[in-house]
Design a protein that fits this description.
With about 325 residues, the protein is an alpha/beta fold. Helix content is about 25%, strand content about 30%. The strands form 5 sheets. The chain has a 6-stranded mixed sheet with strand order 2-1-3-9-5-7, sandwiched between helices. Helix 1 (about 25-40) crosses helix 6 and helix 3 packs antiparallel against helix 6. The structure holds zinc ion.
Length: about 325
């Protein structure tokens, strides 16, 4: 089994509760707890991420295919406001015309509804919630984690982090226990029985937005280039003053958002010099700028050259330079 804890890293937090709880954190806790339950059952389980870091959707989607997994479950918690409900608002999105995906989705829906239903919570629930296909305007499965894998895949939205009553319990042991038990029981039934679980309800037509956002559980591809890359750097001089020449690639540059600096950093994080870039270089890619007279102690043997995006901060490809 492959479990995919949705979102991750500083930019793709997923939806955020009114209490500040990011969806990425709950998704990971449920996935980790589920994995340990499955391992107890002797079911080999791999997570697409095991801590708080970003992974593009296409990379996540390849895990299950490359490993020859029986199935992949992408675990999420939804955001848009939904009406109050006595029962959980679980939604399971399955692959169109794939009976095994529908079967896994049906079992997940039944087991997670049973387990979460044991908790006394003021749930939210969309009127058309259930196990369903979601189709985009090209007629494909709308969500990347459902559309991309050749492996049997589903995307599970366990609840509504936008609902304060739900966000308040998501990190509690009783919630993590109930959610992970529900998912694990469904997986065991999927692998060991012919059980069908809940039937499909009427599907939706929907075109997810691309890009990143904190107010929704968005299907983030991270295809968008968000950091500049340092592609080349040279250094001359001595500890009394080094001269750096650095080439940066930021082909996404526009006047509205561009690579706005590069810097010289020690292995221990000490910053020795910053070259600020006051405008975009949309018409000059990649571009080379210099910084002279950078004083670095003799004890330092090598430095890292990093570049900064105006919106997302330091990141992207770096170059390590041995000092002369
Ligand atoms: Zn999500």
């Amino acid at each position: 089994m492959v479990l995919d804890p949705g979102h991750g890293g500083p930019i793709d937090t997923g939806a955020v509760g009114s209490n500040g709880l990011p969806e990425k954190e709950v998704n990971l806790k449920v996935a980790l707890a589920t994995a340990s339950l499955l391992e107890e059952e002797g079911i080999s389980t791999v997570l697409t991420r095991t801590a708080d870091y970003p992974i593009p959707i296409p990379t996540r989607a390849e895990y299950a295919d490359l490993m020859g997994a029986r199935a992949l479950i992408s675990i999420h918690h939804n955001a848009p406001a939904a009406p109050a409900s006595d029962v959980p608002g679980i939604e399971v999105f399955v692959q169109q015309a794939q009976s095994e995906s529908a079967r896994l989705g049906g079992l997940l829906y039944d087991r997670t509804m049973a387990r979460l239903g044991e908790l006394d919570v003021d749930w939210d629930r969309a009127p058309d919630a259930g196990v369903m296909t979601v189709i985009n305007s090209d007629g494909e499965d709308a969500y990347g984690m459902v559309r991309r894998p050749a492996t049997t895949s589903v995307l599970l939205e366990l609840g509504y982090i936008a609902n304060p009553a739900e966000a308040a319990i998501y990190l509690s042991p009783r919630y993590i226990e109930a959610a992970s038990r529900g998912v694990a029981e469904a997986v065991v039934a999927f692998l060991n029985t012919d059980g069908q679980g809940a039937a499909l309800v009427e599907g939706r037509n929907f075109d997810p937005q691309s890009g990143v956002g904190k107010d929704q559980c968005i299907d983030v591809t991270l295809d968008e280039v968000i950091y500049p890359n340092v592609v080349k750097a040279t250094v001359s001089g001595s500890e009394a003053g080094y001269d750096f020449s650095v080439t940066v690639s930021s082909p996404y540059d526009t006047p509205d958002r561009y690579a706005d600096a590069w810097r010289v950093v020690g292995e221990d994080g000490t910053v020795y010099g910053v070259r600020e870039l006051v405008h975009d270089h949309a018409n000059e890619q990649p571009f080379t700028r210099s910084l002279t007279g950078v004083v670095i102690p003799e004890s330092v043997d090598s430095v890292i050259i990093e570049a900064r995006d105006q919106t997302y901060g330091w990141g992207g490809g770096t170059v390590v330079l041995d000092l002369p």
